[in-house]
Amino acid sequence: MSLSQYRALGRSGLVVSPLCLGTMTFGPGEWGADEATSREIFRAYREAGGNFVDTADIYSGGASEELVGRFIKEAGARDEIVLATKFGFNDSSSPLTASPEGGGNPHAGGAGSKNIHRALEGSLKRLGTDYIDLYWMHIWDGVTPVEEIVQTLGDLVRAGKIRHYAFSDMPAWVAMKAATIASERRVPGPIAMQLEYSLVARGVEAEHFPAAREAGMGVMPWSPLAGGFLTGKYGREDTSDKGRLSGANPFGDSKFTERNWKILDALKEVAAELDCAPAQAALAWAVARPGVASTLVGARTARQIESNIAATELRLSEDQMERLNAVSAPEESFSSSLTGPAIRKMLYGGHDVIGLAGLGAPPSRARGS
Ligand SMILES: NC(=O)c1ccc[n+]([C@@H]2O[C@H](COP(=O)([O-])OP(=O)(O)OC[C@H]3O[C@@H](n4cnc5c(N)ncnc54)[C@H](OP(=O)(O)O)[C@@H]3O)[C@@H](O)[C@H]2O)c1
Question: Are both 55 and 153 inside the same structural domain?
Fold first, then answer.
């Protein structure tokens, strides 16, 4: 597989690479890359055939969008690139940008129509373009009715300002409700979900993956290397001065848990068998998971992105996939417990009936772990 083995994102005609270039690192910041390095990362991704670039209005306080827009212009590649950006976080209170103690404008965040229109105008200006290919709701705000979100984003599709829209970091029911409203009303609906997903974060398999499959949405994992943890550069004894996770983790949770160290041990074994870096094996695992449409890859240096792109050439054997699935298996949740073979036998007179495309079973079950 190479970056130019394009696939449609969800049930849409938007054709994207199996790895999407994440640009959260572009711009100033503790774990960011300066303009020259960001340009090298962008160039390395493009030279490998990549066509899919992801940014957000809040990344580096808007600098990421400015850099991405500049690089696309320099490359003269606006028509070839699928340009994705996001709205939602309040530009005056995000933990990723300067944070005044309260007093911010409540209309400068969330998924209400007023903010979406404001945020989109800002992104178009910073990106130096007049349309966005894929516009993401960055995070569910817990307030705006789903009907308003579908109406606002659908109208923007019809106005030609965005080509498609999608949801990141939301409960599965929100995406499902939006998809249902859209299909019932014959209006544009969300085509993808962007979710934290990696060998150490598989919680979304129970609810989100089946919802995405049912609604025709492609899943895009973010932090597939768990912010660098799955590169293997951190060790149980020494987690200092290695990279982003050595400092305060902006996403709150620590990756340095006993469970995660065990997963990393198994990953290193598989990587040694394949004679590759653990990061490459971790990416190959994510790319191969059923339902995954395109995986976001982030990098702080061009060398990192080049090494990560090489993961698309790797194939994990069935045995290697199963070992990694087993050591990283998520705890059973209420909904995943409903779809197991024991329950199906109770329903079907002792037969373990398999539904269409493994319907009802989360991907881990469908793969036998
Ligand atoms: N929707 C959301 O809420 C959300 C949240 C987070 C991210 N995202 C998107 O997903 C993208 C990827 O997320 P992420 O950056 O967290 O992904 P990640 O792949 O889990 O982590 C990337 C980081 O790991 C380290 N790394 C990567 N490759 C390496 C290698 N080969 N060797 C050593 N270290 C390596 C680098 O950090 P260091 O060198 O500093 O260690 C790099 O910045 C972002 O750019 C963004 O577009 C979305």
Answer: yes
Distance CA(233)–CA(217), nearest Å, equals 34
- pLDDT tens track for 287-316: 999 999 999 999 999 999 999 999 999 999
For the question of residue 59 being annotated catalytic, the response is yes
C-alpha 110/C-alpha 91 separation (Å) is: 10
Q: Does residue 309 share a domain with residue 198?
A: yes
Residues 203 and 338 in one domain: no
Tell whether ligand 1 has an atom less than 6 A from the beta carbon of residue 250.
Answer: no
The residues pairing with 218 across neighbouring beta strands, listed in sequence order, are: 192
Among candidates 96, 98, 122, which has minimal Cα distance to 108?
122
Q: Which atom of ligand 1 is nearest to the CA of 168?
A: 1
Task: Please compute the mean of the pLDDT values over residues 213-225 and round it to a whole number.
Answer: 97
Answer yes or no: do 319 and 363 share one domain.
Answer: no
Helices (H) and strands (E) in the chain, counts: 13, 10
Count of domains for the chain = 2
State the residue range of the domain holding 347.
333-369
Ligand 1 pocket test, pick from 21, 296, 314 with the greatest ligand atom count within 8 Å of Cβ, gives 296
Residue 149 CA to ligand 1 centre (angstroms): 28
